[in-house]
Amino acid sequence: MQFGKLEKINEQRIERIVVENISDRAQKYSFSLPKQQQDIRFQLPPQTFTLAPKAKKELEVKMTVRTSQLDQNIKQGYLYLNNIPLPYMFLTETAEIPEAMGLEFTLSPIDSAYQYQLYLVENAKKLTIDLYDATTFAFVTNVLELKEPSTGVIEGSVELNEQKGEYIANIKIEKESDETYDYQVPIWLE
């Protein structure tokens, strides 16, 4: 759950999640109430609920934060639904963070394409991901070029059949203010 950037001293955010029963039997669901703290409190759906096979239900998760009492400017953790971890994250106005985080590549066993994802912290004018050879630094290929991407998880797939080995992914973010932000991540493609 992405609660975003908090800018007020006391702020409440609501995130909606969809729970889907993908099994062929009815399933019971319930949240484990996290330890309540002075700086952050969650209000979760209190009752246990049952979903019929293939049914979905939208739920509301409320979070109240007192940013003045936080000991960290970036806070992340997990809420648990039937012991399944649901990650959450938010940051405060004072947090010094990169424009994007967590570029990952994984090979899909179904279609031999690489699945990628990264987290974009703020809206941008343009997002580009290029691959360079880790030894020679020569340009290999463009993985992604998005105009006006929104914040949150950016994901997709790309065919990289001939590019096995070690690479450097260069992530370039162009902001509305014409500032650019570049960072590099080592990538190993199998």
UniProtKB/TrEMBL annotation:
UniProt keywords (A-Z) are: Hydrolase, Protease
Q: Name one GO molecular function term.
A: peptidase activity
Name one process (GO BP) from the record. proteolysis
Q: Which InterPro entries match?
A: Ig-like_fold
What domain of life?
A: Bacteria
Quote the protein name from its UniProt record: Minor extracellular serine protease
Q: What is the lineage of its organism?
A: Bacteria, Bacillati, Bacillota, Bacilli, Bacillales
